[in-house]
Amino acid sequence: MSASAQVSTSSALMPTYARADLAFECGEGCYLFTADGRRYLDFASGIAVNGLGHSHPHLVATLKEQAGKLWHCSNLYRIPGQERLARRLADASFADKVFFSNSGAEAIECGLKLARKYQDDFGDKKRFRVICTEGAFHGRTLATIAAGGQEKHLKGFDPIVDGFDRVAYGNLNELRAAITPETGAILVEPVQGEGGMRAASDDYLKGLRTIADEFGLVLFFDEVQCGMGRTGKLFAHEWAGVKPDIVATAKALGGGFPVGACLANDKVAAAFGPGNHGSTFGGNPLAMAVGNAVLDVMLEEGFFARVERMSDLLRSRLAALARRHPKLFGELRGRGLMIGIKCEVPNTEVMNRLRDRNVLVVTAGDNVLRLLPPLVVTEAEIAEAMDALDAVAAGWT
Questions:
Q1: pLDDT at position 10, please?
Q2: ∠371-372-377 over CA atoms, to 5°?
Q3: How far apart, in whole angstroms, are the C-alpha atoms of residue 379 and residue 277?
Q4: Residues 235-262: pLDDT tens digits?
Q5: Count of CA atoms in the C-beta half-sphere (13 A) of 246
Q6: DSSP readout, 134-186?
Q7: pLDDT tens across 153-176, in order?
Q8: Do the strands 359-360 and 39-42 form a parallel or antiparallel pair, or are they unpaired?
């Protein structure tokens, strides 16, 4: 039976998802298992969340240990795990200060507030607008859907939150021309995920830094999906040697436990003081224990180099697949283990046929099939996924 999208009319859940008729009971490494024992190769990773795979022993042990100590005490008090994780993230990145939240959208909201507050305190109070890019996705809150600007997300939620202007992704000339006396920041994904797995060139990212410096703008990168090792470095912008002012990240930071973070340099972070921002659950001891456990693994020598090797292998196998089946597959996109392949047939149909062969992937905009395996994926698992894709292509009618 095909695992087609289902929405139960008897469910008490709000019908906000077109869910596949498939439920998993447990996972291990790159595999998920149903209650009746069916095994699925997971090349979706919970949409780039399970960076270390499922049930990673170090994460499981850490969470169990912390669960027996302390879950929540609120940010009214010091949380040593927060201080440790913030220091480690700062030491491994451009950042000096970190704010912890529960999700990517919250991390983006924090960055948007920080950019406005910085301009209000140290720049020009009139500079509140943010230049974003076409095809962007920054979250599902009222402000972040306005930043993303996609009609399918905005429809029905008028009036649209003001303060966002949009230019073509990758076009520095258009961005420069869009700057007005009210522009205060630039918000860009170094690799667009939902928008079609488009990776920005290093020159584009460097150009954004140059323009931001020239006009006194805050440079804000959304690395919710492309950060935390997904491209073979801790953050995707590192490939360009660029230092932003703000970065939002989440997803793989908690390896499946809800954790988001807004990172900033000292110059911009100085705009926040007590009462300017907060979160009840953000940075709770459970989340911080898991976040630190994730960094234990990711910061081990050789981890990112291995991600690069596996991404090179996966990309070469996909390129060969596209050459064998040019009527089905075309351009390769993305960076690292954040890879998309342009489909010449409906990407949802390819996804469904792969699911029927017990391989899970995700779709993206512009009819792209998105492959997001755990960062711990092996050569054998890549071969298994490619065999399934080959079989789907060979059986296409």
A1: 80
A2: 110
A3: 44
A4: 999 999 999 999 999 999 999 999 999 9
A5: 32
A6: TT----SSHHHHHHH--HHHHTT-PSPPS-EEEE-TT-HHHHHHH--TTEEEE
A7: 999 999 999 999 999 999 999 999
A8: parallel
Q: β-strands 260-264, 246-249: how paired?
A: antiparallel
Total number of residues shown for the chain: 397
Give phi and psi for 258, each to the nearest 5: -65, 110
User: Which two three-digit tokens encode residue 206?
Assistant: 């460097």
Peptide bond between residue 159 and the one before it cis (omega within 30 degrees of 0)? yes
Domains and their CATH numbers in the chain:
5-55+302-394 (3.90.1150.10), 70-298 (3.40.640.10)
Q: Is 45 strand, coil or helix?
A: helix
What the block records as the tokens of 124 is 């020009």
Structure tokens at 41: 């190769």
Q: Helices in the chain by DSSP H: which ranges?
A: 45-48, 57-67, 80-91, 104-122, 142-148, 151-154, 172-178, 202-215, 266-269, 285-298, 303-324, 347-356, 379-394
Do 293 and 64 touch, CB atoms closer than 8 A? no
> Is the distance from CB of 282 to CB of 106 less than 8 angstroms?
yes
